[in-house]
Amino acid sequence: MSDPTFKQRARYWFDNTMSKGTKALIGWLTVITLVLTAIGALFLAIVGGGDGFAGTLWTSFTHILDAGTITGDSEVGYPFMVVMFVTTIGGLVILSSLVGVLTTGLDAKLEDLRKGRSFVVEKDHTVILGWSDQVFIIISELVEANESEKRAVIAILADRDKVEMEDEIRSKIGDLKTTHVVCRTGDPADPDDIGIVNPSQAKSVILLTSGEDDPDAQLVRSLLAVTQGGQGALKCHVVGAVSESRNLPAARLAGGRGAHVVDANDLMARLMVQTCRQSGLSVVYTDLLDFGGDEIYMVEEPNLFGRPLSQALHSYRTSSFIGVLTKDGRCIVNPPSNAQLQPGDKLILIAADDSAVRLDGSRPFIDESAIVARAEEKHRPERTLILGWNAKTRMVLEQLDQYVAPGSVTDVVTDHPDAAEAIRKIGPTMRVQGLNFKQDDTTDRVLLESLNPGSYDHIIALCSDDVAPQLADSKTLVTLLHLRDMSQRSNTRFKVVSEMADDRNRTLAQVTQADDFIVSDKLISLLLTQTAENPHLSHVFGNLFSPEGSEIYLKPADHYVRPGVPVNFYTVAESARRRGETAIGYRVVAEAQQAPSYGVHLNPDKSLQFMVQPSDKIIVLAED
Fold it and tell me: Whole-model pTM above 0.85?
């Protein structure tokens, strides 16, 4: 084959130049303008027009840029007029081409901006990869958390239109306060697209999964893309949640040491079991998980180094001590009060805000005469009713078996096709509780009345996973409405913990009391947000939600202080310390129907006096 000709080479070079876009087109128009100016000046010099070389150049250039200049050429002469007419026509072509090029380039730039592909030049921002209904909860919580900052930024990367994301955020979150939300369009599992939101300069990355068939696969891909996809050494921490327990090891392996991945199903099962067994516990957990009330902070207090933790317990008037984060990264909740705080250790405290964490130099007053030492009552067998069945039910039964006393019974009622076989396999593994199974429709009012729900200590309503999420939530709502109507008619309170597959249906359930708790993806969103702000909180909540070690309990107040006697919370905390427990609040049963706290007073001012009644509760961290 013969070598390319000069014409082919020139054409190839010209095509490559033109393919560079608007800048190249403007460059060519500039060159053509200069050439046309020079040609016009040359012909002017030939016909004898103009005033020297510089004058002919200027005359030619002004005719190219301003077509109106030609109106004065008739007085100069016919040859001059012909040359300038031709030059002006060339100028009109150049200017019209320039306008077209600029318009096209501007439209292309606006389209690029609409696509959200520009680099996010931010630092210490929060990155959210993916899009789901959880994003609105997370943004709302981050807005609350960032309220004390002058300017905070949230960068979102999702496979959605940038303008649509911004419009949806504005419609569902009215006031962003000091937080600025930046949306970008891209694949949250593509390392190149992730680079747009600048994760290497972020303070945290939150991974969300969409409602696709296998969301955990997307989560693993995103974890690999963030941690090993060429983003450099990430200084921030990455948080996410798997929907199936069997995928947790793979997700943690993909995320590496910098990732904090939680098991959503296991966490929700633990919450259901703990909250259904203790009235008011749901309010405590909601308060700790969101940024609206009290949160958990970790502070280093050099003034307490080398001193027993019992001193830390009484050193904060408006904060509640709950544990220690050791210098080697271990999280100890409800540690022994005689243990000493070592240099490098951090105190784990509950406070309304980090600015409220202040050492109180005054000597706390402890009323020894009000402290009582009453023995714990033995746990009695419990009856639990589970309505519905899904992948979390096995975990719920396993958790219940670790909490309830011997002789307890759990009845499962559902029309799920897989439930009978699963119960047959799970039954022999239960250590202390017995299992009964009845296959029937949980939305049937006659069936519910025959079960006599008032005779059960706890009721758990689960969403079936053998139907669409909306249909499952509809059936759960019907069951809840029947239970509430039966409760009102019989004047009997039912402790019902329910579940919603779609968080948008949570508000339809109309929570009316603290025991009427609804578990949904909102709690997972809150936990992810808390962990994004402080990665060590994943260990704190992991300890609190686990049956091993210390958890949150609401115990009779008359086991700690004398009822009807004015006491302060320093006295209550000291009484709990002597029992190997850590007191963090109390619940007034007389206020149990008053929203939104339902009588729960978490992290009270320890110097203020109050009186407890025998039916009131003390909120403590204890091993049992």
Answer: no
